[in-house]
Amino acid sequence: LQFTATRGCGFQSEVAIDNIQLYEGECVSLPVSCTFETLNIQDCFLKNDKTFDDFDWKVNDRPTSSGGTGPSRAAEGNVYAFVETIGRRKGDIATLERFVPVPADGKMCLTFEYHMFGRHMGSLEVLLQNTTVFYEFGDKGNKWNKAELNLNSSAVQMLQFTATRGCGFQSEVAIDNIQLYEGECAVPLPT
User: Is residue 71 part of a domain?
Assistant: First the structure.
């Protein structure tokens, strides 16, 4: 990558550049979604961190192989992403991440479904440029829960979903139906 500036004919010919950001992979534009239905985690706009985590997220279209943890089915469709914690140590982390573009007004809505069932459950954290925007810890029951987050940012940001293994193998976190789009999340109508 090279930037070249050529001086003009007078002293008032300054060239300036600012806020240059270079990211690995192809560019994404909003809206983006990830339902994992292809059974290939690489088809998701989020990618497994290859540098700073301990293990990877996987996709599954059936109950997890561990008893007493993980979902028996997807929140929507047939496939979901999860962390398989057998053979991992307490505190090990798995991260899905991607730099995401920001609309002109900086307002975005992130929605997803998560499943945190198991007596050894660790945590699920969502970060936007190293700032926690969502955090859950411990057993939330054998059910899918929905998260809806209004995000605000002024520049391209790293979005991360990080699962941390709890004190035993019954700590398989799962996620499904991730949506990120421009604007604020819809306000539910009063009932």
Answer: yes
**128, part of any domain:** yes
CATH code for the domain in which residue 164 is found: 2.60.120.200
**Residue 162 and residue 53 in contact, taking contact as beta carbons nearer than 8 Å:** yes
- What is the number of structural domains in the chain? 1
Residue 98 burial (CB count, 10 A): 20
Residue 99 falls within a domain, yes or no?
A: yes
Asked whether the predicted pLDDT for residue 184 surpasses 60, the reply is: yes
User: How many residues are given for the chain?
Assistant: 191
> CB within 8 A of 124, min separation 6: which ones?
114, 116, 134, 135, 136, 161, 162, 163, 164, 173, 175
d(CA 145, CA 189): 19
**Which residue has 């293994």 as its token pair?**
165
Domain range for 120: 39-182
Position 95 scores a pLDDT of 97
Round to the nearest angstrom and report the end-to-end CA distance of the chain. 55
Pairing of strands 80-82, 32-34: unpaired
Q: How confident is the model at residue 177 (pLDDT cuts 50, 70, 90)?
A: very high
**The model's pTM:** 0.83
